[in-house]
Amino acid sequence: MTAMLDVSYIIPSWATGSSSEPYNVLLIGAGNVNFGSDEGPWNHSYRLEQKLGSRLRVVAVIDPLLDRTDAVLAKKRASFVKSAYEGTKAYKDIVEFAKQMTPEDKPKLIVIGSPADTRGSDVPGKDLELQLIGLLPGIPLFIEKPIAAGEIPRAFRVAKSIEESQVLCSAGYMLRYLKAVQMMKQIIRENNLTVMSTIACYACAYEQILKPDWWNKELSGGPVIEQGTHFCDLSRYFGGDVDIDSVQAHAVGWDEAPGKLSKIGIDESKIEPVNRIPRVTTANWKYKNGAVGTFTHLVALQGKTYACEIEVYCDGYLLKLVDPYNAPVLRVRRPGSDAEEVHTFEGDDPFFSEISNFIDVIDHGPQAAEILSSFEDACKTYELTWAIRLASERSSTYKK
Ligand SMILES: NC(=O)c1ccc[n+]([C@@H]2O[C@H](COP(=O)([O-])OP(=O)(O)OC[C@H]3O[C@@H](n4cnc5c(N)ncnc54)[C@H](O)[C@@H]3O)[C@@H](O)[C@H]2O)c1
């Protein structure tokens, strides 16, 4: 989506070596979301380094692929942030870590970046959150999207367990933390507006998507559940809860004339026809308050940059957010003028803000910052994305 992060600028506390109490973090998953890749700007370890400076101490990385953990740790240890990773241990699973954990290694924060089918469920083996609540009670959990890969009621059961355990929890819908998104919220709040409609469009650049699993909806859930979820979540952030029974959708299948793509970078013939992903999915629904939402996801663009935008309409107002991933621009039309105000947000990094806010809440309580995406709320986004997939499959040649 964008190039690798530029980590060349120096974080003051690394440079000076000034340090107070270590801040123990446990990372689950040694993959792209936790350690970065050239797929996009996500990289939680980098944001933790930015936020915590030389206080950061990554106590362990949990990943069944020990070689992958070794490789990411070797890279960190060869860089200026090495002190955070010098003592990092590698474990295949969380049970092993909990058995071996010394009091000095107890994490203050757990960042979960393992695939969705390892979590969000009460089925053994897919119940990471429940395991963590049992083995490491009370330790705050940051959990990536989508919040689950299995049955929706099971995800809501996990939400209930998290709530009952009173563990702090934040879900990885980082676009909510964009300054542009917060400005949209502020305009709605200050002018006492009611959202009438959300119109969202997410077109990915498919040429760069080289993970075979992504192209297999049996494994990824499909592009709306795996990727479009961010814009379904943003739609819900503005429109509120969705009447799930109202969701309607259509898709362009891989086997239809408009679904033929010329630059797929993986061998799609190895994926069962029934599991190949749709090229376009378009959906509409009613929000519970009576407003309406529409969303279109496209696997259509080549090159690198995604084309994503969301419009929010209220009486007299159009709030239009363009390119939230790379260079967010907010266009605002208000009553009294047909002209649009244009707001830009130089250097805004929602991945940093979501981690930073969570750490501020952990350290200083809810008066210091706000968690904008709860586990239960993320379950509702998961539910919406499944409703879109199922509705679109009703009119498709290949159904699940
Ligand atoms: N918020 C965002 O923009 C964003 C961006 C990228 C990925 N993600 C999400 O993050 C999650 C991980 O994606 P990724 O791109 O890092 O995938 P990845 O395949 O690059 O990495 C996942 C890692 O988790 C490991 N793993 C598998 N089972 C495990 C288990 N039980 N315990 C611990 N580790 C386990 C795998 O071996 C792998 O190394 C997905 O849910 C994805 O949707 C979110």
TrEMBL record:
Residues 24-173 form the Gfo/Idh/MocA-like oxidoreductase N-terminal domain. Pfam families: GFO_IDH_MocA, ox_reductase_C. Residues 176-317 form the Oxidoreductase putative C-terminal domain. It comes from the Eukaryota. The lineage of its organism: Eukaryota, Fungi, Dikarya, Basidiomycota, Agaricomycotina. InterPro entries: Gfo/Idh/MocA-like_OxRdtase_N, Gfo/Idh/MocA_Oxidoreductase, NAD(P)-bd_dom_sf, OxRdtase_put_C. This is Gfo/Idh/MocA-like oxidoreductase N-terminal domain-containing protein. SUPFAM superfamilies: Glyceraldehyde-3-phosphate dehydrogenase-like, C-terminal domain, NAD(P)-binding Rossmann-fold domains. GO terms for molecular function: nucleotide binding.
